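Q: A small favour: would you put together sequence and C-alpha coordinates for a protein?
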Amino acid sequence: TILMKGGAWWLTGSVSLLSDALESLVNLAGASFALLMVTVAAMPADEEHPYGHHKAEYFSSGFEGGLILVAALAILWAAVQRLLTPQPVEQLGWGLSLTVISSLLNAALAWAMLRKAREVRSMALEGDARHLFTDVWTSAGVVLGLVAVAFTGWLWLDPLVAMLVAANIVREGVSLVRRSVDGLMDRALEPQVQAQIEKALDGFRHPTLRFDHISTRRAGARRFVDLHMH
Protein backbone atom coordinates (compact mmCIF):
# COMPACT_ATOMS: atom_id res chain seq x y z
CA THR A 1 0.00 0.00 0.00
CA ILE A 2 2.93 2.37 0.65
CA LEU A 3 4.28 1.69 -2.84
CA MET A 4 0.86 2.31 -4.40
CA LYS A 5 0.33 5.57 -2.50
CA GLY A 6 3.88 6.67 -3.22
CA GLY A 7 3.28 5.91 -6.90
CA ALA A 8 0.07 7.93 -6.83
CA TRP A 9 1.96 10.95 -5.46
CA TRP A 10 4.80 10.51 -8.00
CA LEU A 11 2.35 10.37 -10.91
CA THR A 12 0.24 13.36 -9.85
CA GLY A 13 2.56 15.61 -7.86
CA SER A 14 -0.32 16.13 -5.41
CA VAL A 15 0.72 17.24 -1.92
CA SER A 16 -2.44 15.69 -0.41
CA LEU A 17 -1.45 12.32 -1.91
CA LEU A 18 2.05 12.89 -0.49
CA SER A 19 0.45 13.35 2.95
CA ASP A 20 -1.45 10.10 2.48
CA ALA A 21 1.75 8.25 1.55
CA LEU A 22 3.61 9.72 4.54
CA GLU A 23 0.92 8.51 6.91
CA SER A 24 1.17 5.00 5.46
CA LEU A 25 4.93 5.10 6.03
CA VAL A 26 4.24 5.95 9.68
CA ASN A 27 1.87 2.96 9.76
CA LEU A 28 4.75 0.67 8.79
CA ALA A 29 7.09 2.06 11.46
CA GLY A 30 4.35 1.89 14.09
CA ALA A 31 3.39 -1.67 13.17
CA SER A 32 7.02 -2.80 13.34
CA PHE A 33 7.39 -1.35 16.84
CA ALA A 34 4.01 -2.81 17.85
CA LEU A 35 5.18 -6.27 16.77
CA LEU A 36 8.27 -5.90 18.96
CA MET A 37 6.25 -4.75 21.98
CA VAL A 38 3.62 -7.50 21.59
CA THR A 39 6.48 -10.02 21.56
CA VAL A 40 7.88 -8.51 24.78
CA ALA A 41 4.41 -8.42 26.39
CA ALA A 42 3.99 -12.16 25.73
CA MET A 43 7.09 -13.02 27.77
CA PRO A 44 6.27 -14.86 31.04
CA ALA A 45 6.67 -13.25 34.46
CA ASP A 46 10.09 -13.55 36.11
CA GLU A 47 11.76 -12.56 39.38
CA GLU A 48 12.35 -8.98 38.23
CA HIS A 49 8.88 -8.64 36.66
CA PRO A 50 6.52 -10.68 38.87
CA TYR A 51 3.43 -9.12 37.21
CA GLY A 52 4.70 -9.95 33.72
CA HIS A 53 5.68 -7.67 30.82
CA HIS A 54 2.19 -6.74 29.62
CA LYS A 55 2.63 -2.98 29.94
CA ALA A 56 5.08 -3.05 27.03
CA GLU A 57 2.03 -2.70 24.76
CA TYR A 58 1.38 0.81 26.08
CA PHE A 59 4.82 1.92 24.89
CA SER A 60 3.76 0.83 21.41
CA SER A 61 0.66 3.04 21.43
CA GLY A 62 2.59 6.00 22.79
CA PHE A 63 5.33 5.55 20.17
CA GLU A 64 2.81 5.32 17.35
CA GLY A 65 0.97 8.39 18.61
CA GLY A 66 4.26 10.32 18.61
CA LEU A 67 5.03 9.17 15.06
CA ILE A 68 1.61 10.38 13.93
CA LEU A 69 2.28 13.84 15.34
CA VAL A 70 5.67 14.02 13.57
CA ALA A 71 4.02 12.98 10.29
CA ALA A 72 1.38 15.70 10.75
CA LEU A 73 4.09 18.36 11.07
CA ALA A 74 5.76 17.11 7.87
CA ILE A 75 2.43 17.20 6.04
CA LEU A 76 1.69 20.75 7.24
CA TRP A 77 5.11 21.95 6.10
CA ALA A 78 4.63 20.45 2.60
CA ALA A 79 1.08 21.83 2.38
CA VAL A 80 2.13 25.39 3.27
CA GLN A 81 4.87 25.29 0.63
CA ARG A 82 2.38 24.14 -2.02
CA LEU A 83 -0.18 26.74 -0.90
CA LEU A 84 2.42 29.48 -1.47
CA THR A 85 3.47 28.05 -4.86
CA PRO A 86 0.48 26.19 -6.42
CA GLN A 87 1.24 23.52 -9.03
CA PRO A 88 -1.06 21.63 -11.40
CA VAL A 89 -2.06 18.03 -10.60
CA GLU A 90 -1.25 15.50 -13.38
CA GLN A 91 -2.45 11.98 -14.31
CA LEU A 92 -5.19 12.21 -11.71
CA GLY A 93 -7.04 9.10 -12.89
CA TRP A 94 -4.12 6.73 -12.25
CA GLY A 95 -3.26 8.42 -8.99
CA LEU A 96 -6.78 8.15 -7.60
CA SER A 97 -7.11 4.51 -8.74
CA LEU A 98 -3.96 3.49 -6.86
CA THR A 99 -5.11 5.36 -3.76
CA VAL A 100 -8.56 3.74 -3.74
CA ILE A 101 -7.13 0.21 -4.14
CA SER A 102 -4.60 0.70 -1.32
CA SER A 103 -7.31 2.16 0.93
CA LEU A 104 -9.58 -0.84 0.44
CA LEU A 105 -6.70 -3.15 1.41
CA ASN A 106 -6.01 -1.05 4.51
CA ALA A 107 -9.69 -1.06 5.50
CA ALA A 108 -9.85 -4.87 5.34
CA LEU A 109 -6.66 -5.20 7.38
CA ALA A 110 -7.75 -2.63 9.98
CA TRP A 111 -11.12 -4.34 10.47
CA ALA A 112 -9.46 -7.74 11.03
CA MET A 113 -6.89 -6.23 13.43
CA LEU A 114 -9.49 -4.38 15.50
CA ARG A 115 -11.62 -7.51 15.85
CA LYS A 116 -8.60 -9.48 17.05
CA ALA A 117 -7.52 -6.67 19.39
CA ARG A 118 -10.90 -6.73 21.14
CA GLU A 119 -10.78 -10.50 21.37
CA VAL A 120 -7.37 -10.61 23.10
CA ARG A 121 -7.58 -7.11 24.73
CA SER A 122 -4.35 -5.95 23.07
CA MET A 123 -3.68 -2.21 23.35
CA ALA A 124 -0.85 -2.38 20.80
CA LEU A 125 -2.98 -4.13 18.20
CA GLU A 126 -5.93 -1.80 18.83
CA GLY A 127 -3.70 1.27 18.48
CA ASP A 128 -2.31 0.03 15.17
CA ALA A 129 -5.79 -0.86 13.89
CA ARG A 130 -7.21 2.57 14.78
CA HIS A 131 -4.26 4.23 13.05
CA LEU A 132 -5.03 2.21 9.92
CA PHE A 133 -8.68 3.29 10.07
CA THR A 134 -7.47 6.89 10.29
CA ASP A 135 -5.42 6.22 7.17
CA VAL A 136 -8.53 4.94 5.36
CA TRP A 137 -10.58 8.06 6.22
CA THR A 138 -7.61 10.21 5.29
CA SER A 139 -7.45 8.59 1.86
CA ALA A 140 -11.20 9.08 1.36
CA GLY A 141 -10.84 12.79 2.12
CA VAL A 142 -7.88 13.10 -0.23
CA VAL A 143 -9.78 11.41 -3.06
CA LEU A 144 -12.79 13.71 -2.62
CA GLY A 145 -10.52 16.76 -2.50
CA LEU A 146 -8.70 15.83 -5.69
CA VAL A 147 -11.97 15.11 -7.50
CA ALA A 148 -13.03 18.63 -6.50
CA VAL A 149 -9.73 19.99 -7.87
CA ALA A 150 -10.34 18.19 -11.18
CA PHE A 151 -13.85 19.64 -11.54
CA THR A 152 -13.16 23.19 -10.33
CA GLY A 153 -9.52 23.77 -11.26
CA TRP A 154 -8.93 25.31 -7.82
CA LEU A 155 -5.33 24.25 -7.12
CA TRP A 156 -5.44 25.60 -3.55
CA LEU A 157 -7.84 22.77 -2.64
CA ASP A 158 -4.96 20.25 -2.83
CA PRO A 159 -2.85 21.77 0.00
CA LEU A 160 -6.02 22.60 1.96
CA VAL A 161 -7.02 18.92 1.95
CA ALA A 162 -3.49 18.03 3.09
CA MET A 163 -3.87 20.42 6.05
CA LEU A 164 -7.19 18.82 6.98
CA VAL A 165 -5.51 15.41 6.81
CA ALA A 166 -2.81 16.65 9.18
CA ALA A 167 -5.42 17.98 11.63
CA ASN A 168 -7.28 14.67 11.60
CA ILE A 169 -4.22 12.54 12.30
CA VAL A 170 -3.11 14.93 15.07
CA ARG A 171 -6.42 14.18 16.80
CA GLU A 172 -5.82 10.44 16.49
CA GLY A 173 -2.20 10.78 17.66
CA VAL A 174 -3.20 12.70 20.79
CA SER A 175 -5.86 10.07 21.55
CA LEU A 176 -3.32 7.23 21.29
CA VAL A 177 -0.79 9.00 23.52
CA ARG A 178 -3.50 9.75 26.12
CA ARG A 179 -4.64 6.12 26.23
CA SER A 180 -1.06 4.95 26.50
CA VAL A 181 -0.46 7.23 29.50
CA ASP A 182 -3.70 5.99 31.09
CA GLY A 183 -2.42 2.41 30.88
CA LEU A 184 0.99 3.23 32.30
CA MET A 185 -0.68 5.10 35.19
CA ASP A 186 -2.59 1.94 36.27
CA ARG A 187 -6.10 3.02 35.35
CA ALA A 188 -8.83 1.11 37.22
CA LEU A 189 -10.85 -1.60 35.49
CA GLU A 190 -14.19 -0.83 33.88
CA PRO A 191 -17.15 -0.28 36.29
CA GLN A 192 -18.94 -3.40 35.00
CA VAL A 193 -15.86 -5.53 35.72
CA GLN A 194 -15.56 -4.05 39.22
CA ALA A 195 -19.22 -4.93 39.78
CA GLN A 196 -18.48 -8.54 38.79
CA ILE A 197 -15.63 -8.63 41.31
CA GLU A 198 -17.89 -7.35 44.09
CA LYS A 199 -20.53 -9.93 43.17
CA ALA A 200 -17.94 -12.73 43.34
CA LEU A 201 -16.73 -11.54 46.77
CA ASP A 202 -20.30 -11.35 48.03
CA GLY A 203 -20.45 -15.12 47.72
CA PHE A 204 -17.68 -15.44 50.32
CA ARG A 205 -18.57 -12.64 52.74
CA HIS A 206 -19.58 -13.81 56.23
CA PRO A 207 -19.87 -12.27 59.71
CA THR A 208 -16.39 -13.68 60.36
CA LEU A 209 -14.95 -12.83 56.93
CA ARG A 210 -14.77 -9.45 55.21
CA PHE A 211 -12.89 -7.76 52.35
CA ASP A 212 -11.72 -4.16 52.00
CA HIS A 213 -9.11 -1.96 50.21
CA ILE A 214 -10.15 -3.50 46.88
CA SER A 215 -8.13 -1.97 44.03
CA THR A 216 -7.91 -2.93 40.36
CA ARG A 217 -5.66 -2.19 37.42
CA ARG A 218 -5.10 -3.26 33.84
CA ALA A 219 -1.78 -4.10 32.20
CA GLY A 220 -2.14 -4.88 28.51
CA ALA A 221 -4.39 -7.94 28.20
CA ARG A 222 -4.14 -8.80 31.92
CA ARG A 223 -6.38 -7.58 34.74
CA PHE A 224 -5.24 -7.46 38.36
CA VAL A 225 -7.14 -7.17 41.64
CA ASP A 226 -5.60 -6.48 45.08
CA LEU A 227 -7.58 -6.63 48.31
CA HIS A 228 -7.33 -7.17 52.07
CA MET A 229 -9.10 -10.15 53.59
CA HIS A 230 -9.97 -10.08 57.32
Q: What stands out?
A: Strands lie at 211-219, 222-229.
